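Operator note (shift B, R.M.): manual run for LmbE family N-acetylglucosaminyl deacetylase requested after the automated queue skipped it. Running by hand, logging everything below so the morning shift can see what happened. Input copied straight from the record, untouched. If output looks odd, do not overwrite the archive copy; leave it for review.
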Amino acid sequence: MSGPGRLGGAEGIERVLCFAAHPDDLDFGAAGTVAAWTAAGVDVQYCLMTDGDAGGFDPGHRGSIVAMRRREQQDAAALVGVDKVHFLGHRDGYLEPSHEVIEQVVALIREVRPDVVLAMHPERDWDRLQRSHPDHLACGEAVTRAVYPAVENPYAYPHLAEAGLEAFKLERLWLYAAPRSRENHWVDITEQLPAKVSALRQHLSQHPDVGRMEEFVRTQLAAKGREGGLAPGRLAEAFHVVVVNGPDTIAGF
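Run finished. Output pasted below as returned.
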């Protein structure tokens, strides 16, 4: 799967599980695509690995920042058609691809059994280091390790299978916040821009200058549209799409 897409490849997709390190990561990286998916009838769920407790700019928010950021993410998710948001509750800035985290990811993927898992990219982007917060990389690494081989290996975390969370083969992994050289799929989100911007506006604790944030997002989306070969003026979100189990996959686990 490569090149531009109009509905984010929604054809044949019924269920998607999206992972992020912090509240607002998905809204920056993929909310337009999510809005296209949900409008096409796809069931999309979010999983936030940390509570974002180290984010924000107002010292007065320290005591309430976790509840605030959870509420912001739930409100943002609802605006792009996502009703179910899971919170793993790890500490912001301390996320690691540990077996504890990987097991949580495996359990949730097996529970939801999505057609697509979407997560942050595990590789550092040296062109824009801010995309590669250590928690972002840890999110991507933990999800990638979970997707293969643990999700499809019945002998990985065997107590999960004993509890009814049986192994299965995931078809596709979509990674966002990727280094530019890794991007191979662009989704036209021009019509979804209002929903994406509305979702981003919910994260008011993170945006001391909302106007500048929105200008930056539009500039980035326009650049991705050009890079993806879309028509002039079209806006895109970009992904590194990996086929985990396709028609020609012969590996076991």
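Quick read of the result: Strands lie at 3-5, 15-20, 43-50, 84-90, 116-120, 172-176, 185-188, 236-243. The chain has one domain: 14-243.
Leaving this for review. - R.M.
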